[in-house]
Write a structure and sequence with these properties.
The protein is of the alpha+beta class. About 40% of the residues lie in helices and about 15% in strands. The protein has 6 helices and 5 strands; from the N terminus they run αββαβββαααα. It has helices spanning about 20-30, 60-70, 110-120, 130-135, 145-160, 165-180; strands spanning about 45, 55-60, 80, 85-95, 95-105. A 3-stranded antiparallel sheet has the order 3-4-5, with helices on both faces. β4 and β5 (about 95-105) form a beta hairpin. α3 packs parallel to α5 (about 145-160). The longest helix has 20 residues, at about 165-180. The two termini are about 35 Å apart.
């Protein structure tokens, strides 16, 4: 990163046990070659964006994704966001959103789907990808509904499928859920 270039900090709301303001300040100060005077502003995004009173501006996730990705990859024409609670497909032209689809009605193809898989496999979510990489034969996860998929994972475990094969099957099924709801 060159001096003077913008710094994009991704803040995931979740298990943060300190105040958000303190957390953002701490993360900002942890970044190398940056000083407080280099921070131009704090932008809040996500479902709780309007509750972040110390933010300079609140923007939608779709706008934030587009601005950030366009800054890093100016030739971008599409963004797929598989979030914890929803999924988005964003069409982009010249750094502007031209269209988007959002699935916030069902957890198929979201991080919640993968979270339930990790829980059923009794592995930390952070290890799901590494576990899947050692799979020799990914299991077929046919249910796109998160609740049913969790039951399917438990059933596969009971039938003797290896954890790594189930993890790989779940990671393969997640984008399939995204494709199905998008209809494209």
């Amino acid at each position: 990163m060159t001096a003077g270039s913008p710094l994009i900090i991704y803040v995931q709301q979740g298990s943060i046990f300190i105040s958000r303001k303190k957390w953002v300040r701490r993360r900002t100060h942890q970044c190398r070659n940056r000083q407080k005077k280099d921070v131009n502003g704090i932008y809040a995004t996500g479902y709780g964006r309007n509750s972040i009173k110390f933010a300079d501006k609140a923007v939608s996730e779709i706008t934030a994704h587009t601005m950030g990705v366009y800054h890093l990859y100016p030739a971008v024409n599409g963004i797929i966001d598989i979030g914890g609670q929803d999924s988005k497909i964003i069409s982009v032209s010249d750094g502007k959103v031209t269209d988007f689809l959002m699935n916030d009605k069902c957890a198929a193809g979201t991080g919640k789907f993968l979270e339930y898989t990790a829980k059923a496999l009794e592995v930390p979510i952070e290890e799901l990808g590494s576990l899947a990489l050692v799979s020799k034969e990914p299991a077929s996860i046919t249910s796109m509904c998160t609740v049913f998929a969790e039951s399917e994972v438990i059933s596969l475990r009971a039938r003797g499928f290896k954890k790594e094969d189930i993890a790989a099957g779940s990671l393969k099924a997640s984008p399939e859920g995204l494709r199905l709801w998008s209809g494209r």
